[in-house]
């Protein structure tokens, strides 16, 4: 969901071009908390703004809503956790997030990044490296970038 929001508010109005958006998204996955790191990257890449100021504003903007939500919910959290309906709602929200992440993987990542047999092969090998061979995500990102640069 955050990915779609970031794409809408940066690529749509022309602050960041689509290729820079996708490159930053891929590179951010080599870092912990990739979407938050990616938001900072987008702020730094925004056209017409000082990179440091853009990164600072984007970082604050991506963290502030969650921080305010946590601070507002802390006094009530134990009571909320005890409510069966609240637990069911949280479970439903978690399931919805999985679906949204799947949709975000398909569009824009899969539709823009997988354009033929070669790119599909790279994607499958990267997936296998992450899941079967337990290669660290940063190494998969670097390896995929190198292979893409050499092959494509």
Task: List the topology elements.
Layout (H helix, E strand, L loop, with lengths): L1 H9 L7 H11 L5 H12 L5 H23 L3 H6 L1 H30 L3 H15 L5 H15 L1
Give start-end ranges of low-pLDDT stretches: none
**SSE succession:** HHHHHHHH
Mean of the pLDDT scores?
90
Task: Please give the share of residues in helix.
Answer: over 70%
- In whole angstroms, the N-to-C terminal distance is 30 Å
Major sheet details:
none
Which descriptor suits the 3D outline?
globular
Kindly state the number of beta strands.
Answer: 0
Instruction: Quickly count the helices.
Output: 8
Q: What oligomeric state is this?
A: single chain
Rg measurement, Å? 18 Å
Strand content: under 5%
Structural class per helix/strand content? mainly alpha
Summarize the structure in words.
80% of the residues lie in helices and 0% in strands. It is mostly helical and 152 residues long. The radius of gyration is 18 Å and the shape is globular. The mean pLDDT is 90.
């Amino acid at each position: 969901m955050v990915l779609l929001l970031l794409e809408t508010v940066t690529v749509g109005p022309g602050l960041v071009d689509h290729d820079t958006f996708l490159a930053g998204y891929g590179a951010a996955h080599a870092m912990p908390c990739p979407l938050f790191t990616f938001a900072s990257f987008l702020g730094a890449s925004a056209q017409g703004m000082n990179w440091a100021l853009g990164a600072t504003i984007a970082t604050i903007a991506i963290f502030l809503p969650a921080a305010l939500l946590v601070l507002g919910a802390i006094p009530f959290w134990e009571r909320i956790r005890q409510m069966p309906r609240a637990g069911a709602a949280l479970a439903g929200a978690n399931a919805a997030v999985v679906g949204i992440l799947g949709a975000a993987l398909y569009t824009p990542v899969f539709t823009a990044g997988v354009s033929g047999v070669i790119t599909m092969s790279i994607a499958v090998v990267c997936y296998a490296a992450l899941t079967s061979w337990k290669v660290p995500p940063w190494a998969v990102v670097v390896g995929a970038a190198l292979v893409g640069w050499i092959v494509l």
